[in-house]
Design brief:
heterodimer, A: mainly alpha, MetI-like fold, globular, B: alpha/beta, six-stranded mixed β-sheet, four-stranded antiparallel β-sheet, 10 strands, binds adenosine-5'-diphosphate, binds magnesium ion
Chain lengths: ~650, ~260
Amino acid sequence: MSEESGVALESATEDDIDDQPMLKPEEPSLPPGEWVQKNLFSSVFNSVLTILTIVVMAFAVRGLLNYIFSEERVWSAPATNARLILTFAYPESQYARVWVTVGLLAVLAGTSIGLWAQWAGVSAKKLCFWSMNLGSGILLAIVLTQPGVHRDAAGEVLRDADSAVLRKSFATAMSDRLVWWIVGLAFIGAGLLAWNWLGEMRRRTIRVPSSALIFGSLGLIILSLWIVNYGHYAFSDGEFIAISGRTVASTTKQPWTVMWLILVGSFFLGRRISQSQRAVSVKGLMNLAWLLSPFIIYWVILRDPSIDYSHVWTTDLPIFLAFAIGGGAILWLLSYPGIGEAGRLAGVGLVVVAIFQFAAAFTGWYPMLQKARISFVVLALVGLAASNFSGERSQRVRFVGVWVVLMALLHYFATVMNSPATVDVVSENFTGGLTVTLFVTALTLMISFPLGVVLALGRTSSLPIFRIMSTAYIESIRGVPLITILFFFSNILPLFLPDGMDIAEFAAIILGYSLFSAAYLAENVRGGLQAIRRGQYEAADALGLTSPQRTSFIVLPQALRISIPPLVGQVIGTFKETSLIAIIGGFDLLRIGNQVIPAQTQFLGIKRENLLIVAAMYWLITFAISKYSMRLERRLGVGER
Amino acid sequence: MSFSDAHSPISDDLASRRDMIVCDNVNKWYGDFQALKDVSATIKEQEVVVVLGPSGSGKSTWIRCINRLEVHQKGMIAVDGVELSNDLRNIEKIRSEVGMVFQQFNLFPHLTVIDNITLAPRWVRKLPKSDADARARALLDRVGIPEQADKYPGQLSGGQQQRVAIARALAMEPNVMLFDEPTSALDPEMIKEVLDVMKGLAESGMTMMVVTHEMGFAREVADRIIFMEEGEIVEVGTPEHFFTDPTEDRTKLFLSQIL
Ligand SMILES: Nc1ncnc2c1ncn2[C@@H]1O[C@H](COP(=O)(O)OP(=O)(O)O)[C@@H](O)[C@H]1O
Ligand SMILES: [Mg+2]
């Protein structure tokens, strides 16, 4: 016993004396030969498995490469229709609006990365490996891809008597690919050189900032638009233009270059702000901007609504003022610290009136503007929570201030959404392609997330009425295929609505997705809620927190952290399920690749290329989301409680 | 057997003080199992009472009934003159005036130490952030870990976590502190640091009810010791009486096993 403590003491003092930062010993890494032997060929069985796997993989990769580089592929179909895939038939004359959108997103993304990102960077050692791997990958592709075909002077593929294509010999093919040999070897060489040059310094971790890597590689891609002859493909006034051997159209490369500059500029701006005093308030503003961005982009920028100002002055503005001032006054009173039971009663009273007047809307009992009804419901809900915001004067002022801003936003967007669009597009759903995919995903998440949390809380509530209602909702939604719900909302729902109540198809679709997704999100959140230990509830209770406070400060934050992995799974699911929009008549990414392009006279029946491109786009975005979630999990320390 | 027994003389000084906790024939059942049987006791202001008893004797159940983490089915409990009832506001009020420290600390792992401490003062007591922060830092100073304010509970040792838990309870400025085996989950070398904080608290005049197996603490700090077994109070007395001259056989048996 005494010996043990003696040892412990000794080592402690040793640590204290030697407070020089110790050089981290290099991770023990086996030489490549030994590594291969230990991991791949440790036994006869493993060797056979390894060889089999390599052969199978080589065939798979070879098949994919041959498919992509086959002379039969018409890559000009997706290349020409790039705009169609991204934004559907947004009018050429108004295209600047799309670029404003991309620019806005670039500003938001760049600033946010600058403000928040605390990337550790990539170690120089890793970069060397990446470079060597990339080079080896290129060399492998050169060898595996089958030789090209012989073509005549007009570019037609030469065929033999049996009309089979004539391929070049292997040796010719390899020498044809000289440029790629050089590129591949250059990557390997660069990696090796850097590795040797680092030498002893490999042990200290030299890190290249991730931001530099990301913006740098994006920049290189955009630079290549100006240099590499990807070919100039475009539809202009319905006319098909295909000029290979040129760089892409200037209407593509110029805006993208500007976007890159905006992105990088905002990044440095964000960096500056993050070091200044105002960082916290700017972060709050950025969050708000992200939340509002789908609405502003879709309903304001892309739709360019024509607002009827006489209506605004006579109706919209007065209603807004009534709710901002009247509602603000009510909330000011309800958040009075000494109001006690009377406050809770008044809140409940408001909710009762709200439910009543909403029910009245469906029976057509008395006419009232939809906007006013919704505002009243929001007022009732906020009023119910008002007692949680009671306190000193400044706190109440802030509470009422947030209310006024909320009303301003609500009424502004209600007005904008009710105004007709001035941009003339072919589809009823207003927009299509990747744009609609992203917007439906974003809006669905914004609506279904809070709803899902509420449902999860309801299902775990101790009040039977909430439990039964939530369970019934979740179970009935989960028992119905998504496509049924979508059909219901796009076709049948409008028939049920009372006179004077109208719902745009786009909004109906989003509602359908949201209600569906909320049921699944609720189950994920419930899993997180059940993982919270009882001691957490008891500690919160023992401190005298009310149960809404306990839920919002103690239980939910922990439950949501635990449920990040399944929640991200659900986000990815929603993103991919937007492809069902095609079935109910929308023009999403998939439908454009699968139906619209193959119907063009120039590309009749060309489908596979588009589908491959569309699949790659889905994959890229999904991969980015799951990468981000992994970072988030690590940062929030899920699992190490 | 109630505490006003001949063997538990209360000094005149104590008798004249305010009643902080009054329990009158408290009974509690878990299903058919009776966990508390006619438990009666009165704890005066500034008194330190240590509750002893074998495991499963109902000590936790009793102490948790006092701030209504458990609900008793029969009898009466009053804290600082307010009787516990099902009225929600009543319960929240009593809870905010009774601090509790748990065996497993139960800190909030997603909040920093300072946020753990200031959460309830800010949201229950409606204290401005700056005041709550100042109070929290003063309390961290008092429990001897001022430098840990911005860490997360997971980054602290058990003893440090338990001291944060004490600071968190104290931040509500309670009239009574309940401790349910505060050192039982700690490694031996950390027990002392927590007991020292509790001793300091007792010296400052806090009313305390402590369930513990630390006999040294009981002997040194307690004004009175209550011994429980099988849901009943078996014997009540001063530490001197309790450790040198216990009357009940069951008490003697317990002491012979534990000492
Ligand atoms: N939630 C519960 N449900 C059923 N029985 C319980 C529950 N909590 C405690 N008990 C029982 O009540 C008795 C007293 O428990 P407890 O108060 O925790 O004892 P102590 O803290 O003295 O060790 C024990 O027999 C225990 O099994
Ligand atoms: Mg116990």
